[in-house]
Q: What sequence folds into this?
């Protein structure tokens, strides 16, 4: 096999192959070998993806797959997809490493690891696919495994709830992707090809003035909006994210949401005309509603994981707002904010899971003064929260800042005044985001060391002055252990690096966007 | 044209072989008397499989020669001295071959499933296999028929043995009731269809599809009578494929019948109905596409929606499969509805229906095969009876899990997913509203497929340990359908390229 074929097919074959290997060795008396293979697989994939991402020029594979339907096995990695690919493999590796220590209480650790690898394969396939049907196929690959992850390993205390969350996640996504497929097929009925590169470059006869094009763009956008999610299609998200096990929440938020945002860049922008009256501004408006709504919903949350889930709705709003500006800067902002959200929200869910493991609850009312009890864990959490609210110098800042900047100066075909208003509203969303994140920090982390006593649900926890507590009776809480450091430190480090040197990511994205979408 | 007509034996041999095997089964059974050992009880099934294998070998030969040089066979022709043309009643072309593949595979799987009944001794094996072979003969013939009379007769040859198969088990009152219900509905539908056929004949003066088409295209009068005939024929065939609102016999019949027969009805018998529809509409009545396509689109939307929505509440596994097969029939009807927007009759539209039918056939057979295994231990067939199947009987459990995700159209059942893509692609554009309705239905379908899937992975209430009886024949049936699904999921082109290529 030639080098591009080896690189790209290898990137898909490695996680899948290790998943199979792990499954074959799973029946041994102990699960160490199988789990070790799974972790090794994720690390090899990570290394492989770094090679793919940093290879000059990028790779493309384009061979026939199902000739009778005109579907081609068309994969490619460029500056738009490479950052997301590396982010995916990194997050998956972190998830698998964290599984080594955190065996789920209901067992089935190896099965969970295998499912994570399959989800990784599907996500990587989506980021690599340049054929619309192939994208759709990979889009669906991750669904059944993720359904299992939520359904079987989700919130142990709430079985009906997690089953409902899993099924709702599945049905929403499938409904969205089926509509997206109809949109893709409409595109093909006009252009005769499923090849998005041809369509984006304007080499296929795609007639933007026809009503079919508007319908196709609407359906594709609708499907991706469910996945992203765009307000008001987000209603599956809070349940799925809060009921999923820690690694499931991390993958859902960090990786699976990005299939939607990436799809907007790769498959929605080429079939959409910015000059269509009201359509693109409408999408942008929904994105801004999502930003404000997500922030307001966060202020009202009582559960830590639900709060982080709603904060994702807001962050994804920034990404979609950036996409709808139809500028190079917008695409840069979208990719940047996607990667940053993946790192930061991944970290937030990791820490939230760690807190839930230690205290058995994620109810904000029962979590107090973590600075005093688990100082290191609390510090990492504070770091992630700071990054999430967009503190300059950390990755989260650039995504939001660039998104708003691109909204101030959208593509010439778009109504500038409307977007200026939207930019202001999005800025207002930033303030709200800061507000709820700071409130969260004050409530959860700060204060004098207090005794947390498990109390009847619904009543306030009893706070005692630290001076009155006998030092001997103070519970000793386990702070971060080595494996958590190992699993989380890459996320912390990258959040810092990308915050300090955003150019690392922005330059390749703008180059690739110029090649893919032309001048815009 | 003098003397005796030439007969294309290559084309006629497969149905003939099945008919001969049917007679042989009956004779052997009559002379051997009641079976004394288990092995003896399996003799009829063995003869059936040998007959099917013989037919399959001829089928393979035809397919190879068709693939190489595009040979097709026509036979039983009637000349028209006036213009020197001749019309044939029996034709073996690519379309027929695809369908024969489905029938031969389906009949073999059902014969294997039937061997399970040989163990309980309540089903007379000789008669059962005789009826199966007769019905399969009809199913082969209908795909090759190119005139209305052959079509109607072949359709009856498919249906009549099926009534008896439903009610064959001794002392099973529910099966007898199911059989009567099925019989009455079928007879009525045949009567309606014959009425339609006679009207079409009355207008065009021919029973051959080619000549009907030519006559209608030339403006045969009175057109209104021909339209009425078309509608009546569609109604008759809609009963056979169980399209809503002509579906009410399906759930009771499937549940009352032995699972193997339900599998036969849902795959082979239903496929015969679809092939009838394809032949009549696409070969005989393309001139009326404006009339029948909108009707089929509405039927498709109704069928999938009603099937999926009613399946949501089912707790009985076979009843759920029955409603799901109603819903799947709706998906297969979509391409017919899509013909509306196409200019005249586009063959690729048929290719989509045929492709979906082929995929649906072996996936659904897989699900029914596992239901047969579980049904032997839990005759009540509640969904909760499937708990722990993955652990207790991994082959059956994984095969069913795969079949369910493929029916739902999700990876790893990639082939099921692509089947949906094929149908969607026929509808997107000409009838986009139907594609959107189908998208909604795919999502509804997920609810019950995943509900069942979930049960497979839940720990069983009863302690572990294999209490399942899996006769070797049933095991082979499950393995064959499962393997086919896996292979086609990895290399979908193997199945889809030839099937779609034939008409595309």
A:
């Amino acid at each position: 096999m030639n080098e591009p074929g080896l690189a790209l097919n290898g990137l898909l074959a490695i996680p899948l192959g290790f998943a199979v290997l792990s499954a074959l060795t799973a029946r041994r008396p102990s699960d160490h070998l199988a789990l070790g293979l799974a972790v090794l697989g994720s690390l090899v994939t990570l290394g492989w993806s770094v090679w793919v991402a940093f290879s000059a020029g990028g790779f493309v594979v384009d061979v026939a797959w199902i000739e009778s339907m005109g579907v081609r096995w068309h994969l490619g990695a460029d500056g738009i997809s490479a950052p997301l690919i590396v982010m995916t493999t990194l997050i998956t590796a972190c998830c698998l490493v964290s599984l080594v220590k955190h065996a789920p209480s209901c067992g089935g650790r190896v099965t969970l690891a295998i499912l994570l690898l399959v989800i990784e394969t599907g996500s990587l396939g989506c980021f690599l696919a340049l054929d619309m049907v192939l994208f759709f196929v990979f889009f669906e690959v991750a669904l059944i495994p993720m359904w299992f992850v939520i359904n079987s390993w989700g919130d142990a205390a709430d079985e009906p709830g997690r089953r409902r969350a899993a099924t709702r996640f599945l049905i929403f996504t499938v409904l969205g992707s089926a509509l997206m497929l109809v949109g893709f097929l409409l595109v093909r009925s006009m252009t005769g090809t499923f090849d998005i590169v041809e369509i984006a470059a304007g080499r296929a006869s795609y007639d933007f003035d026809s009503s079919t094009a508007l319908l196709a763009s609407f359906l594709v956008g609708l499907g991706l909006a469910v996945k992203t999610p765009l307000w008001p299609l987000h209603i599956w998200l809070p349940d799925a994210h809060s009921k999923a096990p820690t690694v499931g929440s991390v993958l859902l938020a960090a990786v699976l949401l990005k299939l939607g945002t990436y799809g907007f860049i790769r498959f929605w922008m080429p079939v959409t005309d910015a000059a269509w009256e009201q359509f693109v501004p409408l999408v942008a408006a929904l994105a801004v509603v999502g930003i404000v709504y997500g922030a307001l919903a966060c202020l009202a949350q009582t559960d830590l994981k639900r709060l982080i889930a709603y904060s994702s709705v807001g962050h994804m709003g920034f990404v979609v707002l950036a996409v709808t500006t139809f500028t190079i800067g917008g695409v840069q902002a979208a990719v940047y904010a996607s990667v940053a959200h993946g790192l930061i929200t991944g970290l937030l869910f990791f820490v939230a899971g760690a807190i839930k493991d230690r205290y058995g609850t994620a109810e904000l009312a029962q979590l107090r003064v973590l600075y005093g009890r688990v100082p290191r864990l609390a510090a990492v959490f504070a770091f992630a929260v700071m990054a999430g609210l967009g503190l300059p110098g950390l990755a989260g800042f650039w995504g939001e800042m660039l998104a708003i900047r691109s909204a101030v100066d959208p593509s010439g075909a778009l109504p500038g005044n409307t977007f200026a208003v939207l930019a202001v509203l999005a800025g207002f969303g930033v303030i709200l985001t800061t507000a709820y994140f700071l409130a969260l920090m004050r409530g959860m982390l700060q204060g004098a060391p207090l005794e947390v006593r498990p109390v009847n649900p619904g009543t306030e926890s009893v706070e005692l002055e630290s001076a009155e507590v006998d030092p001997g009776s103070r519970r000793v809480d386990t702070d971060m252990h080595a494996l958590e450091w190992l699993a989380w430190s890459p996320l912390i480090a990258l959040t810092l690096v990308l915050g300090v040197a955003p150019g690392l990511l922005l330059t390749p994205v703008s180059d690739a966007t110029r090649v893919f979408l032309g001048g815009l | 044209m003098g003397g005796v007509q030439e007969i294309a034996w290559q084309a006629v041999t497969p149905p003939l072989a099945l008919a001969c095997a049917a007679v042989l089964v009956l004779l052997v059974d009559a002379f051997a008397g009641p079976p004394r050992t288990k092995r003896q009880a399996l003799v009829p099934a063995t003869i059936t499989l040998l007959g099917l294998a013989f037919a399959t070998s001829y089928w393979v030969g035809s397919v190879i020669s068709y693939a190489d040089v595009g040979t097709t066979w026509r036979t039983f022709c009637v000349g028209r001295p006036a213009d020197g043309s001749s019309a044939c009643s029996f034709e073996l072309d690519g379309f027929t071959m695809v369908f024969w593949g489905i029938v031969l595979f389906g009949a073999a799987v059902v014969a294997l499933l039937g061997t399970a009944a040989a163990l309980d001794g309540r089903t007379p094996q000789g008669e059962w296999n005789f009826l199966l072979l007769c019905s399969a003969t009809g199913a082969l013939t209908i795909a090759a028929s190119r005139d209305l009379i052959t079509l109607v007769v072949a359709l009856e040859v498919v249906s009549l043995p099926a009534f008896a198969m439903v009610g064959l088990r001794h002392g099973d009152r529910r099966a007898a009731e199911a059989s009567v219900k099925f019989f009455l509905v079928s007879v009525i539908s045949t009567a309606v269809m014959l009425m339609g056929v006679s009207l079409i004949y009355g207008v065009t003066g021919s029973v051959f599809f080619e000549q009907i088409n030519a006559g209608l295209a030339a403006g045969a009068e009175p057109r209104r009578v021909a339209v009425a005939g078309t509608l009546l024929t569609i109604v008759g065939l809609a009963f056979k494929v169980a399209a809503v609102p002509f579906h009410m016999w399906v759930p009771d019949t499937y549940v009352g019948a032995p699972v193997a027969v339900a599998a036969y009805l849902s795959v082979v018998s239903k496929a015969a109905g679809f092939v009838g529809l394809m032949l009549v509409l696409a070969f005989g009545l393309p001139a009326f596409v404006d009339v029948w396509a909108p009707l089929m689109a509405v039927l498709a939307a109704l069928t999938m929606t009603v099937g999926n929505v009613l399946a949501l509440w089912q707790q009985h596994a076979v009843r759920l499969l029955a409603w799901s097969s109603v819903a799947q029939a709706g998906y297969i009807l979509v391409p017919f509805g899509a013909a509306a927007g196409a200019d005249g009759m586009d063959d690729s539209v048929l290719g989509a229906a045929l492709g979906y039918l082929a995929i649906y056939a072996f996936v659904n057979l897989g699900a029914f095969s596992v239901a047969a295994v579980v049904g032997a231990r839990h005759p009540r067939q509640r969904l909760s009876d499937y708990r722990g199947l993955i652990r207790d009987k991994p082959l059956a459990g994984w095969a069913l899990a795969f079949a369910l995700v493929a029916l739902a159209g999700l990876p790893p059942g990639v082939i099921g997913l692509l089947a949906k893509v094929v149908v969607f692609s026929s509808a997107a554009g000409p009838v986009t509203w139907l594609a959107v309705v189908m998208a909604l239905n795919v999502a509804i379908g997920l609810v019950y497929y995943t509900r069942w899937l979930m049960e497979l992975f839940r720990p069983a209430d009863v302690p572990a340990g294999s209490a399942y009886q899996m006769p070797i024949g049933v095991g082979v049936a499950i393995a064959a359908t499962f393997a086919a699904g896996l292979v086609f999921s990895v290399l979908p082109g193997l199945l889809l390229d030839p099937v779609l290529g034939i008409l595309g």
User: Anything to note?
Assistant: Confidence is low (pLDDT under 50) at residues 459-474 of chain A. Chain A touches chain B at residues 64-69, 122, 133, 136-137, 140-141, 143-144, 147-148, 151-152, 163, 167, 170-172, 174-175, 178-179, 181-182, 185-186, 188-189, 212, 215, 219 (CB under 8 Å). Residues 81 and 127 of chain A are 6 Å apart (CA to CA). Residues 282-520 of chain A form one domain.
